[in-house]
Amino acid sequence: MASSSSSLYDESGRVVEFLAANNFIMALEVAKSLVSGHPDSALANALTALTLMKISLRDSNVVRRREYIASALDFSKTALALSPKSIAFGFLNAKIHLANAHDDAAIQECESAMSIEDPRDPWLDYLGIINEGYDSDPQESSKESRIERVRTELRKLLVKAKRYKFKRLVEDHSLAEINKEFQALQDRKEEIQTRFDRERQSFEKMEMPSPSTSTRKLKKVLSNVDMITRARDYWNNGMSLEAKKDFLSVRIEKFFHKNKSMGVKAKEMLAEAVEYAKETKSWKFSTCCCCGQRFSDEELNLEHIKSTHLGTFSEELQSVVPKIVPASEIEIGDWRPVNVVAAAKLIEDLSRNDSANKGQDEGKSQDLKLKNLPHCNDINRGMLIKSIWILLQLFIEIECFAPSHFYMLLDLILEMLKNQIPETLLNQSWMKTTLVSVWFLDEPELESVQEFLIEELGISCGLQGLYTSFHRDKARRDLTITHESIVFRDDALSHLIPLLDETSELASRSVDDIKNVGQEYRDNIVQWLFTGGEPIGEKLKEWEKYREASKSLGTELFKIIESEFHRLQNMCERKCKYLRHEKLWLDMEGICLEEDKRRKEISGYPQSYRSLLLKRQKDIEKEKSIEEMGSMELDIIESVLKKAQADNDIKILFQMHIHQMGGKCFKSDATILATNAAMQQTWNKLTMVTSYDYRSIVVPLLKTFMRAQLQDMVDKYATEKSNAEIEVLLSELNLNAKNNTGREGVDARQGQGKSKNKKKKKDHRKATGGSEDQQGNVEQTSVPAAHGKDHALNPEIVGPVTTDELEQEERELTRKAEEECRVEEHRRMLARHLEYQRQIENEAKQKRLAEIDKA
């Protein structure tokens, strides 16, 4: 026995070495030799099973792989039968079942191995070979610690088996090509959107300019800063409220006939726009991408396209489009991990209270339990639960979470919780009907649930990509710039009033209120008029180019809508087929359930399920005309009769197919909702591409016209103001000149009097014949010869007075020359003042430009 045991272990070691070196041929040869020499050895059978399983996993030939797996399963069962207390061999058996896609059998083997009491296993050292990725712990020297480690690995395998069970349940390989097409169309839409954004930015100048572009644009605005300054001054200080009202209310007739900047095309476009606005009371319009028909309402355009150019679904197909699970289904409380032990105790205590108070409202009792659930601070579990909640929010936000998804997820959670939490918790009604159950899952189960949502909904159905696309579109909408608006002033629709933006408070006012907006544009209107404004001809070309590009992109988007429509139609038809099959399986299961009920109620000879199915088959065949459903039912009955004989096998087959139909509907619903959401996204893009606003071309025309008008008014105002200032200055100068003249006249008269007196004295001296000194002496010592009598002067002695007149004329000429000099000096001062003012304004402009360059 010692020699035999030694040989067994030696050969077993060789098998392990070959497996570790991936030499599977030699490993299988030694293993078969080993089991041939030791057929009753559990270890020999287990190693052979392990070798066959590893070979099967690496063989691409499906037939050989099945043969290897079947053979491995036989050896594994033999090993487990020879050593039923071996937890490691139970683990191996479960792995082989899982590799063979026997998920339920794998789950059962895991649960059986975990329930072994006092396992006695000399083969734990081989676990590293059985379970790839298992790292042995040097500190696990005791058998108990090693067994506990195996139980941990078993639980992970159990979770994996349950996850695979649901994965295979919802798996539908036929959707692979559909999902590829779905993603290709999403990429195509993104490309079209990018092209449209480029065209719209080119037309509306919505692009974010580079710093150098911004500088050039601002320089262009500030290059005419003198005109803007003068216009603002005129608007704020020189223009009456009535004048502002008249200026802001532009007569359409005047706009047409006195607008020098408009050519023939511009006038035609303006006439078209105004006529449309008068008729529809709106500047916006939408055109059909197929026939070009124009609509004042976007929704009317979409309805026209759907009914005239696309088509609609039948009522049956519309009925299978799933509803959306409301957000309230996940807004059920605090999404945090629950302390399972404390929760079980709480439920038991509350249940006892319920029994004592039978009259208490059951709903109130459930609310009390949910509100008082004891949470715990398990960080890893908390993060996973939060991640699951975010995923669910994401799917609901894009309207891609159907009831079939909700219930499949709930089934997966309850499957994970089976045999993991007390029955008192598992049997609570809210555990089976709400997603509160996810709070009770442990970390491995939570990871599996998260993986299921990401892979089976997020990736395979393209929902994550759709979510990203939706948020990209939302970001685009948030960047949309509102249009400058225009309203008609009166009922006759003869005047236009500009508003600076469509969302302004003014836009919602009555016509009477809008008439009084002059003061409210105190700081805005001038800046608005002198900002932007490319040549009208260029704007018209851009408008035509934009319309043409939009039409082309709209046609491309409609083709995508057609593809999405046909895909949605096909998926709805496919789901109808699944639902018919599901109904047939349920009907046949119902026949068997009726028999079960009859057996319980009536004693006697029971009828087998097989006989009942044969009877049903004959009844259908007797019908004169077998409809489609009857033909499908016959196919199903024939299939069941071939595969199963015993009642239990038939029942299992029914349940398996019913679950399969549920799984197919799970993926169908995901694809239907994803296509529906994508199609709605395409409709939104088509609406955007085919919608126009006449204001985008009328506003520049109106702006150019009003700017030219305002410039003329400003120039006229500046001229009048300058002339008035000169007149005031000249008046002041004339007044000063008159004052100066008056003073000089007085001085002249006083000077003339003195001159005459001096002349008389001089003439008197000549008559008496003495010098002035002598004359003075005579006056002092003698008395005149004829004192008291008047003596006439001799003209010859006095002489002519022409010298004084000449002096007076000279003074007058001097005064006039000085006055003209003063006037000229004032003129020069005024010119210097105006030049100085212009210099200050120019320096201010240069300073602002320098600051912009620096920025």
Automatic annotation (TrEMBL):
Q: Mind telling me which Pfam families this protein's record contains?
A: DUF629
Give yes or no: UniProt keyword Coiled coil: yes
* InterPro entries with a match to the protein in the record: DUF629, Ubiquitin_hydrolase_53/54, Znf_C2H2_type
Q: Residues in domain C2H2-type?
A: 288-309
Q: Where is the composition biased (Basic residues)?
A: 755-767
Molecular function as annotated in GO: hydrolase activity
Question: Domain of life, per the record?
Answer: Eukaryota
What is the recorded name of this protein?
Answer: C2H2-type domain-containing protein
Answer yes or no on keyword Coiled coil. yes
- Where, if anywhere, are coiled coils annotated? 175-202
Residue spans of biased composition, Polar residues class:
771-783
Q: Which UniProt keywords apply?
A: Coiled coil, Hydrolase, Ubl conjugation pathway
Q: Where is this region: Disordered?
A: 739-819
